[in-house]
Amino acid sequence: MTARTPEVQTKLPAVGTTIFTVMSALAVEKNAVNLGQGFPDFGCDPKLLQAVTDAMAAGHNQYPPMPGILPLRQAIASKIATLYGHSYDPQTEITITAGATQAIITAILAVVRPGDEVIVLEPCYDSYVPNIDLAGGKVVRVPLTPGTFRPDFDKIAAALTPRTRAIIINTPHNPSATVWTEAEMQRLEELLAPTDVLVISDEVYEHMVYTGARHESAARFPGLAARTFIVSSFGKTYHVTGWKVGYVAAPAPLTAEFRKVHQFNVFTVNTPMQHALASFMADPAPYLELPAFYQRKRDLFAEGLAKTRLKLLPSGGTYFQCVDISEVSDLNEADFCQWLTSEIGVAAIPLSAFYGDGFDQRVVRFCFAKKDETLHNALERLARL
Ligand SMILES: Cc1ncc(COP(=O)(O)O)c(C=O)c1O
Q1: CATH 3.90.1150.10 domain position(s) in the chain
Q2: Ligand 1 centroid – CA 3 distance (Å)
Q3: Distance CA 128, CA 139 (A)
Q4: Residue 100 confidence class, pLDDT cut points 50, 70, 90
Q5: Which of 131, 171, 203, 236 most suits a substitution to test ligand 1, by most atoms within 8 Å of the C-beta?
Q6: Which one of 34, 102, 205, 256 has the fewest CB atoms closer than 10 angstroms to its CB?
Q7: How many A from CA of 67 to the centre of ligand 1?
């Protein structure tokens, strides 16, 4: 008898090897400084590591409750209430997830039915569209304004139909590093008020907002909070992206539906990390000091880039810096990034990777969540441009 693997018709025909994988492999091959990948090359606070060790030694190694341990949910509710002025019930409105990625797909699977429309604002994080596809939803792409990346509310309004089930927003925004203003959040609140459209608000960079601006969480706006799954990630805030722990805050009826899916796609999230994060959150300093920590790195990197012919776009939040390449090269974004990695020795990500149609506006993204020495090393190489 011959063993034969049955043929599988792919559920995600448009998904292949991403530019992130390609660029990372090329960066290794060419020994380039990797400013493409969106994660830190430095460690987290040793106190956080110790707290994990302590939690394991104390025997916190079995399944935690399905929505996450209560002290962590309480710490999150209290942080949101203090920073954004909205009270979530930790029992019924906060769920710990395996990073923001699982939170987003779980929210989508919980509320999007086949044929429902979901609005995404392009450029956008790469998991949103495949998540909607897996739910059988219809992706409705609305571009952010080219050049400024501001939301275009006329275009968003025009995209709303009776079939619109949800809109996904992301502030501070990956990849453009823009931050939504209070007025923009209010516009969204007003626009959605007469509708039953839900919001998935990806706020993983909530603690990285610069020059004194504040993060406009959907939690600040009652009309949005009532219809929104707010998603965040400890990976970004505490420099532990590999731990994959995040959370969702949403009104009780939305959380109830979220948990129905959550309990069958992950059931729950690793126990010792949850205990460690709960005790570490008692001190707000690490997240309150994050803007100053990253703003210094942003400015250090920007100062070096200003000496090149790359044109800096504003970086108001996140740990990304976008640059316009048009004075340096005639190549398209993807080819430029390959060239930059191979010939200059610095990896970056083309913005076209964040558009369904590969829209090319001659802009690439660098990540500055790196040790100072890594940034200096990259700048020395980029000085040739
Ligand atoms: C906008 C955005 N959303 C979600 C994620 C995923 O976060 P996590 O690692 O917690 O799954 C990322 C990570 O890069 C991101 O940039």
Answers
A1: 19-44+288-382
A2: 40
A3: 9
A4: very high
A5: 236
A6: 256
A7: 20
Q: Mean pLDDT for the chain?
A: 97
**Residue pointed to by tokens 């995209």:** 159
Q: Which atom of ligand 1 is nearest to the CA of 38?
A: 14
Q: Which atom of ligand 1 is closest in space to residue 202's alpha carbon?
A: 3
**Which CATH code for domain 19-44+288-382?**
3.90.1150.10
Instruction: Count CB atoms within 10 A of the CB of residue 345.
Output: 18
DSSP, collapsed to helix, strand or coil, labels residue 86 as coil
Q: Dihedral, CA atoms, 331, 334, 337, 338, nearest 10 degrees?
A: -90
Ligand 1 residue neighbourhood (C-beta within 6 Å): 38, 99-101, 125, 170, 174, 202, 204, 233, 235, 241, 244, 246
In tens, the pLDDT along 143-162 reads 999 999 999 999 999 999 99
Phi, psi (rounded to 5 degrees) for 347 = -95, 140
* Fold adopted by 51-284: Aspartate Aminotransferase; domain 2 (3.40.640)
Which residue in this structure is represented by tokens 């191979």?
Answer: 342
Indicate the pTM of the whole model. Answer: 0.98
Atom of ligand 1 nearest to the CA of 125: 1
Work out which ligand 1 atom sits closest to the CA atom of 241.
9
Secondary structure (H, E, C), 203-260: CCCCCCECCCCCCCCHHHCHHHHCCEEEEEEHHHHCCCHHHCCEEEECCHHHHHHHHH
Domain with CATH 3.40.640.10 in the chain: 51-284
Report how far residue 356's alpha carbon sits from residue 15's, in angstroms, rounded to the nearest whole number. Answer: 11
